[in-house]
């Protein structure tokens, strides 16, 4: 059901997909990190923040309805920027359901202080702790050729296996390194009639949770890897 929404758009996304080489600056290697598995839940759900769970802007007039205002620390001396959030509809219902089944992790290419402010606002509004770990820019790789940041799920391998990890992200490029672990979702830009999260929630709960290897299931359902490999072959001819 959920995956059918994507077939047409995926083709479009894949055709505008940049050519990737294997040139990344592994800047996170310099960062001390440990994302040990705390939760006993078998599967791990990694969630992108911007345009996946929320639309955030510093320009108040961009949003008709503001759900929350956060302050993002810019320097350690206390200067901060005010940002306005519009939560994607059904965000809290989805998190309330999925926290019972998945270990939940946020992973953004935004700054650590933005990620922390977002997580705090969601947990304050939801009245509970949802996220086991919050990963941000310092945990991303940088693709010099494409001038974009990429996420790398290998950073989570301590205590987990890639067959049990899924990432949901509105930008396919973000999970380029593990295409078989990635579930794409349409951009959320503040439209309160958006109803993607209930569909995503059902797909995760009823199809991904029972999959022995999420990669096989995702490859079969979304075919992103196949499409991109076909395109890369075309480039490499
Ligand atoms: Mg995003």
Automatic annotation (TrEMBL):
One of its GO terms (biological process) is protein transport. It is a single-pass membrane protein. It is found in: Mitochondrion inner membrane. PROSITE patterns: FCP1. GO terms for cellular component: TIM23 mitochondrial import inner membrane translocase complex. InterPro entries: FCP1_dom (IPR004274), HAD-like_sf (IPR036412), HAD_sf (IPR023214), TIM50 (IPR050365). It comes from the Eukaryota. Keywords: Mitochondrion, Protein transport, Transit peptide, Translocation, Transport. Residues 38-207 form the FCP1 homology domain. Belongs to the TIM50 family. Component of the TIM23 complex. Essential component of the TIM23 complex, a complex that mediates the translocation of transit peptide-containing proteins across the mitochondrial inner membrane. This is Mitochondrial import inner membrane translocase subunit TIM50.
């Amino acid at each position: 059901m959920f995956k059918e929404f994507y077939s047409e758009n995926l083709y479009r996304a894949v055709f505008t997909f940049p050519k990737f080489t294997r040139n990344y600056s592994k800047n996170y290697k310099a960062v001390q990190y440990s994302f040990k598995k705390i939760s006993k839940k078998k599967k791990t759900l990694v969630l992108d923040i911007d345009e996946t769970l929320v639309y955030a802007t510093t320009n108040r007039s961009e949003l008709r309805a503001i759900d929350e205002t956060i302050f993002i620390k810019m320097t350690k001396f206390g200067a901060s920027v005010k940002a306005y959030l519009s939560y994607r509809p059904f965000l809290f219902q989805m998190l309330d359901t999925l926290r019972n089944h998945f270990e939940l992790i946020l992973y953004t290419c935004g700054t650590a202080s933005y990620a922390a402010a977002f997580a705090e606002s969601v947990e304050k509004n939801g009245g509970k702790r949802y996220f086991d770990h919050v990963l941000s820019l310092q945990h991303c790789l940088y693709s010099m050729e494409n001038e974009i940041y990429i996420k790398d799920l290998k950073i989570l391998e301590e205590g987990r296996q890639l067959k049990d990890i899924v990432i949901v992200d509105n930008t396919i490029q973000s999970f380029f390194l593990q295409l078989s672990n990635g579930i794409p979702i349409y951009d959320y830009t503040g439209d309160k009639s958006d109803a993607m999260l209930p569909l995503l929630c059902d797909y995760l709960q009823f199809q991904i949770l029972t999959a022995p290897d999420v990669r096989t299931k995702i490859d079969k359902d979304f075919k992103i890897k196949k499409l991109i490999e076909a395109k890369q072959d075309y480039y490499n001819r």
